[in-house]
Amino acid sequence: MSIWKSANPTGAIADFIEVYRQAGANRFRIGLVAALCTFGVFSIMMTQSWKKQRKLPEVTYINSWPLDRTAEETRAFIEANQRLKDAQEEIQAANAAEEQKLWMALGKVSGMNVDAIKAKAEADKAAEQARAAAKAKAQLDR
Fold first, then answer.
1. Which residues lie below 8 Å from residue 30, measured CB to CB, with a gap of 6+?
2. Tens of pLDDT along 38-59?
3. Sign of torsion, CA 139 78 96 94?
4. Which of 67, 75, 127, 132 has the fewest beta carbons under 10 Å from its own?
5. What pTM did the predictor assign?
């Protein structure tokens, strides 16, 4: 079915003619103002750039290590960073365990066999770790 079957522009043309007649002597002034406004807006839009300026990269130099740093200072720095990393991993592991408990509770309420799903997930994880270990061993043996 064609869209033009149900569209009839005669009503719109008749309305335009009626409004044109009612405008009287001001119709040319109003038309000129409307045309100037439209031209002004489009001319302003044409001068605008739609490209975003590329942000220049920030270069950060490592300047926190003095040249006369001793091995003990380096070791203490590494140990402090390792303790911080271990603490963050413990927090992340606790959050993951809590999240797993919540999902398991939701699964039980939904009627799912969460124990079987957990066993399959653990088996998949162990198989993936075994594949990664075998791949690493194969690369080292080369």
1. 23
2. 999 999 988 887 777 788 888 8
3. positive
4. 67
5. 0.42
Q: ∠ CA 127-131-134 to the nearest 5 degrees?
A: 135
What single-letter amino acid sits at 130?
A
pLDDT grade, residue 20 (50/70/90)? Answer: confident
Is 114:108 a contact under the CB 8 Å cutoff? yes
CB 20 within 8 A of CB 27: yes
Q: What is the DSSP string of the chain?
A: --HHHH--THHHHHHHHHHHHHHGGGHHHHHHHHHHHHHHHHHHHHHS--SPPPPPPPP----SS-TT--HHHHHHHHHHHHHHHHHHHHHHHHHHHHHHHHHHHHHHHHT--HHHHHHHHHHHHHHHHHHHHHHHHHHHH-
Q: Which residue has the higher pLDDT, 19 or 124?
A: 124
State how far the Cα of 33 lies from the Cα of 22, in Å rounded to an integer: 18
